[in-house]
Amino acid sequence: MTQPIIEFRNVVKKYDDHVVLNGVDLEIDAGKFYTLLGPSGSGKTTILRLISGFLDASSGDILFDGKRINDVPAEKRQVNTVFQNYALFPSMNVYENVAFGMTLRGVAPAQIKTKVTEMLELVKLKGFEEREIDELSGGQQQRVAIARALANDPKVLLLDEPLSALDYKLRKEMQYELRAIQQRLGITFIFVTHDQEEALAMSDWIFVINDGEVVQNGDPIDIYDEPINHFVADFIGEANIIPGTMVADNLVHFNGQDFKNVDGGMRPNEPVEVVIRPEDVDIVSVEAGAVTVRIDTVSFRGDYFEITASDMDHHEWQIQSTNGVEEGSRVGVTFDPEDIHIMRLNETEEDFDARLEAYDEE
Amino acid sequence: MKSKQSIPYMVPYVLWIVLFVILPLLLMLIQSLQDIHQQWTLANYANFFRSGTYLKMTFNSIFYAFLVTVITLSISYPMAYGLSRVKNSQFWLLLVILPTWVNLLLKAYAFIGLLSQTGTVNQFLGFIGIGPQQLLFTDTSFILVASYIELPFMILPIFNSLVEVNPSLPNAARDLGATPWQTLRRVIFPLTLGGVRAGVQAVFIPTLSLFMLTRLIGGNRVITLGTAIEEHFLITQNWGMGSTIGIILVVAMGITMYVTRDRKKRGKR
Q1: What's this model's pTM, rounded to 2 decimal places?
Q2: By three-state DSSP, how is residue A295 classified?
Q3: What CATH number did the domain enclosing B252 receive?
Q4: What is the pLDDT of residues B16-62, one digit of tens each?
Q5: CA atoms within a 13 Å half-sphere pointing along the CA-CB vector of B262
Q6: Residues of chain B found within 8 Å of residue A87, distances taken between Cβ atoms
Q7: Which residue, A37, B10, B73, B114, has most beta carbons within 10 Å?
Q8: What topology is assigned to A6-225 in CATH?
């Protein structure tokens, strides 16, 4: 097993009595694209600042390359940050901004020039050397910020919600570019965002953070398909979450019926939550449907319709469909056994992983 | 875009400028071009530039204003920097600014009380066995008191420019490996140059024509252009010469403004 480049061991951060991080453990391997995903105030930015050194942990150990760095000041750490508002130096031009870190270390001017040119090429801003910062668009400033951070040859690049100020199209474009830059340079990226779509699109590995704890971590597909609990299921994408009971392995009871599914490893008749993604729900005739629902709203989203409906038990259903239906009409809905995901109540991540492994092997 | 509706609001401004700026300046210019018999002449200017006394006074004015500016700047910048980083900074700043609300003469008399032969400072010096000393009516006391009086005008603009610096910029500098000193010198200071310029203007220009202090504290040992203007208007009644010196001062202010102007588009926020 290789040594993780960054490791948190039971890291706690509190201000007076207010706990921001409640015993976080995590491991970051070199060369991958990580995302810390969580709502505002979940503590994800705090984790980033603990890595960069702008905050000190109240207790616990932060390791970098196996060495404890709790007491290493920010300017001595081999990480660089792309700030949310870019934090470019307005008194310097693009070239001077990108060169800043190197001039501090006394790198030879010729070498600085080569590196700045290389970095500006990387972020597609060749020829912008002499531009002033206030002459740049938001997207261009973003690129300069990335070039400036990367020019320092960090082992880990921290990105603090860097795309949140960009418009939708530019954000999409930057997602691809960031991913491409990361793969080309092979540097570890740790990206903080509250945008689940962004996280799913870019990451090798996602840490879902809530209330100062890592709720779940895994690759994007696992997190989306196998959310550990109500919070994750709801936060990552849209989800229909319905209370039910697990009658036996591969058989779940909800909405007054038994459904076949592919989960197991629970106590008989254990109360659970059932997750069905809106895109997995198919609209059929009432006779052919497993559940009968009444369509409440239909909203056109361009590439699909977003439909809300309610069943006889007053559970709300979210459905994504390529075809529109009439509001107020009664239809049936179906879903396949593989589309049903079961979540136990209050299951820890360790137990969850152990259970998944156990019944996958059967 | 000007709209007609805004014209009535311009009236007070225009009145003010005409009555209190343009007219007085014109009058001064006219008087400076006349001798004591109201005859048109350039003699006043010729006098000024030919006489060693006036040139020496000019040099004195600039020299002392320069000293006071340098002293207040070197005290104010660290002070403003410290103030900008503490809690309740506005309150602490207020304490520094408070003395400006007291009349200049009152403060001057207070310093006379402190610095005179039998004053508090000399009592203390006598107590520790090195006094009494001649403190009042020295160059040092003049510079001390002038710096004390001008200090708030230097601190205020610097402080304001410091608090306007985006707090994530020092973080970014540290992140890129800058020590606190490098951050101050290379990132924060360039961004506060505007405040420093404003402070230099607010101190240097008024100090050029300080005159009450030169008499009360400097004991007329320091004679500046301000003193000369007062003498010509009130004592020798040579208004032409007084106005000439006034015009010279206005020109000096203009030059100061020009030298300390915001040179490049850069450095502006």
Answers
A1: 0.81
A2: strand
A3: 1.10.3720.10
A4: 999 999 999 999 999 999 887 888 888 889 988 888 888 888 888 89
A5: 13
A6: 166, 168-169, 171-172
A7: A37
A8: Rossmann fold (3.40.50)
